[in-house]
Amino acid sequence: MSAEYETIAGPVDSELEISRSRFLTRLERVDDEEQARSTIAAARAAHPRARHHCSAFVLGEGQRTRRSNDDGEPSGTAGAPMLDALTSAGLSDVVAVVTRYFGGVLLGAGGLTRAYRAAVAGAVAQAARVRRVVRIPARVVADYTLAPQIEAEARRRGYVVAGVHYAESVEIELLLGVAQRDEAVALVREISAGRAELQFEAEKLVDLPA
C-alpha cells in the first residue's frame, strides 16, 4: 500500500449569490462512488424545487477517479469547473454538489463556469483538511519504569503516539511510517534490554493533521 493525499475533515456548506441566482454548495468526504452518489441524491431530496444539482467528485490516491455532471446546465459549464476546483486544491475522497436556484437572469456560459467554480472553491476554502497516509499500527507493553522512556523517545523521533493506556503495565500505541518500522523495533529492544517487543498490525490509511 502506498498513498498520501489530502482530503477534508468533515462536511462543509456554503452559499454564493450571483445575479439573484443562489448557488448552495455541499462538500462532503466520501470513501467510494456509492457514497458520493448518495450525497448527490440527498442534496436533490433536500432541495426538490431547485432547478439544478450539479456535481463533481474525486476519489483515491492520485485523484484516480474523477466524475462530474452538469445536471441540465449547458455542457461543460458546471461539472467540469467544479471538478477543476477540487483537483486544483489537491483534494481527493471528496464530493461537491452545487444546488442552483435560478434568479431569472441568464449568466451565459462564461458566467456559469465562473460561478460554479467559485461556489466550490469557496467551500474548499472553508474546509478543514487532513492528510491520508499509510501507517503501520504497532503497540508495545512495558512496565512503569520503561514506558515513559519509550514514549518520550518515540515522540522525539517523530513517531505518532496514538494512545497510552495504564493498567498493571503500560500499553503504548504507535502509528509508524514504513521506513520507521525497523528503527522502532531496535529502539524498543535497546531501551528495554529485550524485555519488550513491538506487535504490529496490517498497514492502513489513517488521518493526520494537514
Report on the structure:
The chain is an alpha+beta fold and 210 residues long. The chain has helices spanning 33-46, 79-88, 108-126, 147-156, 181-192; strands spanning 4-8, 12-18, 21-29, 52-59, 65-69, 94-101, 129-142, 160-166, 170-176, 198-200, 204-209. The strands form two sheets. Strands 1, 7, 8, 9, 10 and 11 form a six-stranded antiparallel β-sheet that branches.
Beta-strand content bin? 35-45%
Classify the helix fraction into a percent range. 25-40%
- End-to-end separation in angstroms reads 20 Å
Order of helices and strands: EEEHEEHEHEHEEHEE
The backbone outline, from C-alpha atoms, is elongated
Topology:
Elements: E1 4-8, E2 12-18, E3 21-29, H1 33-46, E4 52-59, E5 65-69, H2 79-88, E6 94-101, H3 108-126, E7 129-142, H4 147-156, E8 160-166, E9 170-176, H5 181-192, E10 198-200, E11 204-209
Antiparallel strand pairs: 1-7, 2-3, 3-6, 4-5, 4-6, 7-9, 7-10, 7-11, 8-9
